[in-house]
UniProtKB/TrEMBL annotation:
Origin: domain of life: Bacteria
PANTHER family: CARDIOLIPIN SYNTHASE, MINOR CARDIOLIPIN SYNTHASE CLSB
CDD domains for the chain: PLDc_CLS_2 (cd09112)
Signal sequence annotation: none
Annotated ranges, domain PLD phosphodiesterase: 61-88
Protein name: Phospholipase D-like domain-containing protein
Source organism per UniProt: Alkalicoccobacillus plakortidis
PROSITE patterns listed in its UniProt record: PLD
Length: 148
């Protein structure tokens, strides 16, 4: 999965955690640098829970990562205007294109895999090394995460 924002609904977060705990390999690609204040910080508590559940999370640092894409079992894909956040799922009007043609799914998967190879994997160790400033911003973002 790739998205510029990750502030998910409770249902999405819990489904991803459950899937990972059941042995499904999940990779999430997010931008290293956010384009809105506090969005990256707002995602960190969710990311920490994903990591604890076995999800692999990556920060793309070759520019702003703005793709909204998903590939499932190398056979189904989607590209979308929807971000993986509450605003896209419950407030905004979004559009998603489902991909069933293998060549299209493969093209999206190849792009995402290439981006993951150049991205930095987020680890529990790297989360523990966050600065006091980052942790403070995360606390503030948590107060307004419903608006992000």
């Amino acid at each position: 999965m790739g998205s510029p924002y990750y502030i998910p609904s409770d249902i999405l977060q819990e489904e991803l955690i459950q899937a990972a705990q059941n042995g499904i390999k999940i990779q999430l690609l997010l931008p290293q640098k956010a384009d809105h204040p506090l969005v990256k910080e707002g995602s960190m508590p969710y990311i920490q829970r994903l990591l604890e559940s076995g999800v692999s999370v990556y920060h793309y640092d070759q520019g702003f990562y703005h793709a909204k894409a998903l590939v499932i079992d190398q056979s189904l894909g989607w590209v979308s205007t929807a971000n993986l956040d509450k605003r896209s799922f419950h407030l905004n009007s979004e559009m998603t294109c489902m991909l069933y043609v293998q060549e299209s799914v493969q093209a999206v998967m190849n792009c995402m895999l290439r981006d993951i190879q150049t991205a930095e994997e987020i680890t529990m160790e790297s989360l523990q090394k966050r600065s006091l400033l980052s942790r403070s911003k995360e606390q503030i973002a948590g107060l307004v995460s419903g608006l992000l």
